[in-house]
Specification:
By secondary structure, this protein is mostly helical. It has a single domain, classed as Hydantoin permease, CATH 1.10.4160. Helix content is about 80%, strand content about 0%. It contains 20 helices and no strands. It has helices at about 25-35, 40-50, 55-85, 90-95, 100-135, 140-150, 155-175, 175-205, 210-215, 225-240, 245-250, 260-290, 295-300, 300-315, 315-355, 355-370, 375, 380-410, 410-420, 425-460. α1 (about 25-35) runs parallel beside α12 (about 260-290). The longest helix is centred in the C-terminal third of the chain and has 37 residues, at about 315-355. The structure holds phenylalanine.
């Protein structure tokens, strides 16, 4: 079979890959991309890492990394997708030649690796939602721990994982517009409404001020150069925005050539950061009101699945309604993200082998479901997979993207953005950030993260 890759120089009408599908509008793309970004990472990772990493110092570092590093990388990733018209596996080769092939494989490995444990977390979320809806909440902390142990191991965890992968497959198999875009069009607005209602409700809790204090108002400047805080902020920023993994690249390949990528990227980043902050302003008052701080800071997965149901249970019937709203919005956030992760291998199989979408989807679902089995059966494996795929690989992907679009093929970024109406001065600043700031900042963040990770693994 002839290779579908054409290594052509970039030009204004660069859609060499010509995918057959497309978004119905720029808004459809922005909602789908926001759906990819807003996920369990915002609801669970942000709050947990902020509480561990010194409140406001973490938030300040996080916002700086998002604006100076993730936003330019996200724009570069979108340009790579749109300008080549290829899926994540082939787009790097089209832009930079054969020596960039490993980047395509890195995208595939990171997306497949993340989805295989992300679906397990989705399974726990779905199980907690169903339990709150049909049975009720665990009565106290001990009951919460027992409930969490029961959903995060054995047959229950396997079932949640398999069902979440199947649901993700059904959406992706329906196609870009009829599946992914339709889900995000109702899911994202609903998610914001639910979150806003919960935010107002949480502001009335007795521990609201104390909660905001631990999350946002506590200032400790020494945390700004603390290795764990820096690792947490980097990992959280890349994971939450979802940059560096090919998911947004896959979505951008279906994008109209005239749409304004920098504005769209800024909208995605703003929504994502807003959801992280809003979710923290719901969970921290709850945690403070019921003195659950120890559970939150002593366990990575404990926050959402043990502390929150315990706090909500103390509120009786109202707490049950809140639990359904919270875990319902978490499941929506999760599935709009999982579909973007599955789209990476699916679009690549369609693009590289000329397969039809359903065939690519169900093969992808089968392989990823099997790869996720160890994480479904052992939370220790899940946490390690998160550190490797969701932490290190994602950041390496971001670094390589900055190098490819900043140094390897800078003409592509300039031409694509200028042809779609971006002012030259903005394009110049973006290129400067991509060439100088992003690679240096990401390299430093990566080294600090690797050293800190090795230290935490060695320490148990
Ligand atoms: N951003 C998603 C979250 O916060 C996860 C994700 C990572 C999605 C990478 C796509 C790509 O949960």
């Amino acid at each position: 079979m002839p290779s579908p890759i054409s290594e052509q120089p970039a030009g204004p009408g660069q859609n060499q890959g010509h995918p057959t599908e497309s978004w119905s509008s720029s808004l459809g793309f922005v909602l789908a991309a926001a759906g990819s970004a807003v996920g369990l990472g915002n609801l669970w990772g942000f709050a947990y890492r902020a509480s561990q990493g010194g409140g406001l110092a973490f938030v300040v570092l996080y916002v700086a990394i998002v604006l100076l590093v993730c936003l330019p990388v996200l724009i570069a990733e979108m340009v790579l997708g749109r300008s080549t018209g290829h899926a994540p596996l082939l787009a790097p080769i089209t832009a930079g030649g054969r020596r960039w092939a490993p980047l395509g494989w890195l995208f595939m490995a990171a997306a497949v690796g993340i989805l295989s444990y992300y679906a397990v977390l989705m399974g726990w979320t779905g199980r907690t939602l169903l339990h709150a809806l049909l049975v009720g909440l665990p009565a106290d902390m001990e009951a919460s721990k027992a409930f969490f142990a029961s959903i995060s191991s054995g047959g229950s965890a396997l079932l949640g994982h398999v069902l979440s992968m199947a649901l993700t497959g059904i959406v992706v198999a329906a196609g870009v517009r009829a599946g992914i875009e339709r889900l995000s069009r109702w899911g994202i607005p609903l998610l914001f409404v639910l979150l806003l209602v919960l935010l107002i409700w949480a502001a009335g809790l007795p521990g609201a001020m104390e909660g905001y204090h631990t999350f946002l108002l506590k200032w400790d400047a020494s945390k700004l150069h603390d290795a764990t805080t820096i690792r947490n902020a980097f990992t959280q920023a890349f994971f939450s925005i979802g940059a560096g993994i090919g998911a947004i690249l896959a979505y951008a390949a279906y994008l109209d050539r005239r749409s304004a990528i920098p504005t769209e990227a800024a909208a995605v980043v703003t929504m994502d950061t807003a959801v992280g902050l809003m979710a923290g302003c719901v969970t921290f008052p709850l945690v403070a009101s019921f003195a659950l701080g120890d559970v939150v800071s002593s366990s990575t997965v404990g926050t959402l699945f043990i502390a929150l149901p315990t706090g909500m249970a103390s509120l009786g019937g109202a707490g049950r309604v809140v639990a359904v709203a919270f875990f319902g919005l978490a499941y929506i956030a999760a599935i709009t993200s999982s579909v973007s992760l599955l789209e990476v291998p699916v679009a690549s199989l369609i693009d590289r082998l000329g397969w039809r979408r359903p065939r690519a989807v169900w093969l992808g679902v089968a392989v990823i479901t099997v790869l996720g089995l160890p994480a479904a059966l052992d939370t220790g494996v899940l946490e390690r997979m998160d550190a490797v795929f969701g932490g290190v690989l994602l950041i390496v992907g971001g670094l390589l993207l900055a190098l490819l679009l900043g140094w390897g093929s800078p003409g592509r970024l300039r031409q694509d953005l200028q042809a779609s109406g971006t002012p030259p001065a903005l394009v110049g600043s973006l290129l400067w950030l991509l060439r100088w700031v992003s690679p240096c900042a990401i390299s430093i963040g990566l080294v600090i993260s690797l050293v800190d990770l090795a230290r935490s693994w060695a320490g148990g």
